[in-house]
Amino acid sequence: MRRLSQNLHFARKYLREEVLPTAYCSGCGLGTIMNSFLKAVAEMGHTDLNQFVFCSGIGCSAWIPSPHFRADTIHTTHGRSLTVALGMKLVRPELKVVVFGGDGDMAGIGLNHLVQSARRNLDLTAIMANNMIYGMTGGQIAPTTPIGTKTSTTPFGAFEYPLDVSKLVAAAGASYVARWTTFHVVQLKEAIKKALSKEGFSFVEAVTQCPSIFGRRIGMDEGRRMLQWFRDSSVPVSKAREMRDEELVGKIVVGEFANIEKAGLLRNMKEAAMGVSRVGQEK
Amino acid sequence: MLTELNTTNPGSYFWQGNVACVEGALAAGCKFFAGYPITPANEISEWMSRRIPSFGGVFIQMEDEIASMGAIIGASWGGAKSMTATSGPGFSLMQENIGLAIMTETPCVVVDVQRVGPSTGQATKCAQGDIMQARWGTHGDHEIIALAPNSVQEMFTLTVKAFNLAERYRTPVILLADEIVSHLRERIDVPEKVEVVERQEILQPPFFSSGFDIPKGMPPLGRGLGVSITGSTHDPAGIRATTSPEIHRKLVEGLTFKIQRDKSQLADCEMIGVEGCDIGVISFGCTSRAVEDAIEIVAQRGIRVGHLRLRTIWPFPEEKVRELAEQTNRILVPEMNLGQLSLEVERIVSDGTKVLPLNKIGGGLIFTPSEIASAILRSMER
To answer: Is some CB atom of chain B closer than 8 A to the CB atom of A269?
Structure first.
């Protein structure tokens, strides 16, 4: 058994020791997302997670906060984490509410709640780990799976178009939306810092590798190979704007999709309660 | 509007049932309401949206009933007493998260104003067909508390009671109303003092039930306790244990034991004229109002009816039913469904007692007193 000293790794103080090591497969990208989040939190000066409440649904990424984080964590039903988070935030506005979930959880079964949270500009941060597959259940097609991919439920190749989740959330009115991959660890961490500081709904999509369930179906059964793929196929938002749709097929557009100053749900509710009539228009 | 008082003054009012429900919730300390539009529960959301801000509470209309149920769970863990209100179709959508509330021992109140189903059915019409949905709507072994008001007065008092039981047992409580009781307008007396069970805090694990050990409150969040709340099987500290048969058995036994243990205390019933009766009637909700008149009609023919009126539907008041069955060998069970409660009664009474279902569905037409009186007379002839 490996013995790690308490102060060997900066993240240990944020983790529930009793649940380590993680249940994640080797080569999984979720540890990288966890690391980026905790680095962001550490750099923002939080020495513990006492001011946070984490909500998550069902799937591998829901396990990032629950059970790993030494914090108040609510592990809810599949897709419904944002609704539980809303109830929490509206009665405890002083707490930082952060939601973790996968693409199946947030863009599949729970997509309505994601869009509505962005529309409301609900004051919390949602981090979606997008591995382009239902990993925990064994590799079924997800709303984010590239067309043509063979999965356990599309044995002859996927015949549906994938959803650009970040674009959708930005269009629905979120204050902050960014997409990075687990190759872009520094950018991911910086995006999480911005998201945590933003009024309104902030959404960070982290494209991540699932070598065991997704990678091996597309000829990349090693995390390292998938990271190289992310590196080689990433295109910055600014550059993507000048590219034609057919040029963008197979590319991962990274960067900020929204970064605006806009009243969040809490402020709008407060003002409405004071009898001030206003629409949530941008400043 | 905004100058409305943040209290409900004691006194007599002429209110609709749904309004009385809101006032009862506010009197019980409800501080968070999430709901989705559905007939015949809309007046609850509408009146709540107007009233709760002056009590320092939050109203939000969600995108569906799944979200409403999720939001009241989140708010409850945030420390606010919380409630949602719906009807049959929405109640169906809530079932998965009702299971989450049971598993995470989250106090909250769910009002189901019953209407004609299945599916969209007859959206504006009364029915009593959600008895079994309330009991077994969510999957897996569990216990549930469900209360059935039969008047505007009880839309107030049983809503207060639902909040109190939710806190005491750390579980969701269903207020199983029906369209007629919810839309009925009649006199209600708001009492001088309303007994309210306040949220208790526990600062040390165990935070959750296990076997016979039931927590006496809820751990507050945001105070560094590191509370782990999960719908997965968990140990009393809240840490997931998804393979251990022992931990699962102890957890689910605890969740059922805490309600089963107090079955007798929870059995809130009205028993009238039971001793030496010729025939028994068991009823609840709007149906019981017609039974009251039917009893007077048959009394003119010299027939003595023992009436057991259930305010508690779940856990099923078995002892009260047995008490009635000791007095008579025939029990009429009128209900606005094709026989849900009557099955429970049959389960409880001995073979010597004849259970006579009387069923009426569709169109929202309540039983008339004469229909019930005729059924009583017919059954006496047998």
So the answer is: yes
Question: ω into residue B40 within 30 of 0, thus cis?
Answer: yes
Q: Is A163 in CB contact (< 8 Å) with chain B? A: no
Nearest CB to A53 within list B32, B63, B221: B221
User: Is the minimum CB–CB distance between B79 and chain A shorter than 8 Å?
Assistant: yes
Q: Which B residues, 320 through 339, put their C-beta within 8 Å of a C-beta on chain A?
A: none
* pLDDT higher than threshold 60 for residue B1: no
Task: Convert the pLDDT of each residue in A61-91 to its tens digit.
Answer: 999 999 999 999 999 999 999 999 999 999 9
The answer to whether position A280 is within a domain reads no
Chain B contact present for A197, CB below 8 A = no
- A145 part of a folded domain: yes
Model confidence pLDDT, tens digit, residues B289-319: 999 999 999 999 999 999 999 999 999 999 9
Report yes or no: B240 at the A interface, CB cutoff 8 Å. yes
The residue written with tokens 């107007």 in the block is B50
Give yes or no for A221 touching B (CB within 8 A): no
Domain extent, residue A208, equals 10-273
**B272 close to A (CB below 8 A):** no
pLDDT of amino acid A282 = 45
pLDDT of residue B167: 98
Distance from CA of B361 to the nearest CA of A (A): 35
Residue to mutate among A88, A94, A106, A115, with most B CBs inside 10 A, is A88
Query: At residue A275, does pLDDT exceed 80?
Result: no
| Token couple for A36 | 């980026």
Residue A278 lies in a domain: no
State yes or no: pLDDT of A1 exceeds 70: no
CATH code of residue A115:
3.40.50.970
Q: What is the mean pLDDT of residues B63-72?
A: 98
Residues of B in contact with A16 (CB under 8 A): 226, 228, 239
Structural domain includes residue A257: yes
Q: Which of B6, B38, B36 is closest to B23 using CA atoms?
A: B6
Confidence grade of residue A6 (pLDDT, cut at 50, 70, 90): low
Mean pLDDT of A152-178: 98
Domains (ranges, CATH) in chain B? 11-190 (3.40.50.970), 268-381 (3.40.50.920)
Q: Determine whether the interchain pair A86/B67 forms a contact, defined as Cβ–Cβ distance below 8 Å.
A: yes
Mutate to test the interface with A, among B64, B68, B73, B102 (most CBs of A within 10 A): B73
CA-nearest residue of chain A to B97? A77
Return the pLDDT at A171.
98
For chain A, the domain total comes to 1
pLDDT in tens, B319-359: 999 999 999 999 999 999 999 999 999 999 988 899 999 99
Chain mean pLDDT for chain A: 94
